[in-house]
């Protein structure tokens, strides 16, 4: 799966939702064209989680991608 950086995932638990930064969100949504249900890896340098994309926002709104940690 594709990997995305998040500045801080600790403490995190399975089922928790996190948002990606604008640049990471744009890359996931507009370059890779991933959508809801896609599996990705999110990491912060100390930990890494498998996550599922739950929403991608829109390019027009600049909405952040939301992920659910697995």
Describe it.
Strands 1-3-4-5-2 form a 5-stranded mixed β-sheet, with helices on one face. By secondary structure, it is of the alpha+beta class. It is built from 1 helix and 5 strands; from the N terminus they run E-E-H-E-E-E. 14% of the residues lie in helices and 33% in strands. The longest helix has 10 residues, at 22-31. It is globular and about 30 Å long. The chain has one helix at residues 22-31; strands at residues 3-5, 17-19, 39-43, 48-55, 66-69.
Q: What characteristics describe this protein?
A:
33% strand; alpha+beta; 1 helix; 70 residues
The H/E string reads: EEHEEE
Outline the biggest β-sheet: 5 strands, mixed
The number of distinct helices, counting runs of at least 4 residues, comes to: 1
Q: Average pLDDT, to the nearest integer? A: 91
Please estimate the helix content. Answer: 10-25%
**Straight-line N-to-C gap:** 13 Å
Question: What's the arrangement of strands in the largest beta sheet?
Answer: 1-3-4-5-2
SSE class: alpha+beta
Share in β-strands: 25-35%
Low-confidence runs of at least 5 consecutive residues: none
Rounded to the nearest angstrom, the radius of gyration is 11 Å
Assign an overall shape: globular
Number of strand elements: 5
Q: What's the quick description here?
A:
By secondary structure, the chain is an alpha+beta fold.
Secondary-structure blueprint:
Layout: E1 3-5, E2 17-19, H1 22-31, E3 39-43, E4 48-55, E5 66-69
Parallel strand pairs: 1-3
Antiparallel strand pairs: 2-5, 3-4, 4-5
